[in-house]
Write a structure and sequence with these properties.
Layout (H helix, E strand, L loop, with lengths): L16 H8 L4 E5 L5 E2 L14 E5 L3 E10 L8 E9 L2 E7 L12 E8 L5 E7 L4
Antiparallel strand pairs: 1-2, 1-3, 4-5, 4-7, 5-6, 7-8
The structure holds zinc ion.
């Protein structure tokens, strides 16, 4: 299955800049609250759970689990692709694409790992691929 796609340059807010810089180093980091201990994604200036501004970045091992997904068919001559919510840490989910896979083989709860692809402007984009095949 072809997964060749062009990825557009993301809109990068100042509070999300460290996330994107880490992605350029092939690392997945999660914005985590020092007050309540919960992480969140997409990065924000304040914790969405307790509104604290005392946040830190925690690097993950890049593993996650498919929480939900949908296979998208954009046209008969275009490759299908998979849009998904992946749980990247306890109760922290990222909207992403699953790549390097047979879309028909994916399942909820499947373990995936972070992979990065460059946008046209050189920014790494966070995607995931299955850890194991069925
Ligand atoms: Zn908090």
């Amino acid at each position: 299955m072809s997964t060749t796609r062009e990825y557009i340059h993301p809109e990068i807010s100042p509070e999300a800049r460290p996330f994107w810089d880490a992605a350029n180093e092939g690392k997945l980091v999660i914005h985590t609250c020092r007050d309540c201990g919960r992480g969140h994604h997409y990065p924000r200036a304040m914790c969405p759970h307790c509104y604290s501004a005392d946040l830190e970045w925690k690097e993950t091992d890049g593993h996650g689990e498919i929480y939900s997904f949908s296979v998208v068919t954009a046209g008969k001559d275009l490759p299908r692709y998979v849009i998904a919510y992946v749980e990247i840490a306890d109760r922290v989910k990222a909207m992403t694409n699953i790549v390097d896979c047979d879309p028909d083989s994916l399942r909820i709860g499947q373990r995936v790992k972070a992979v990065f692809r460059r946008s046209k402007t050189g920014q790494n984009i966070l995607l995931f691929s299955p850890l194991e095949s069925l």
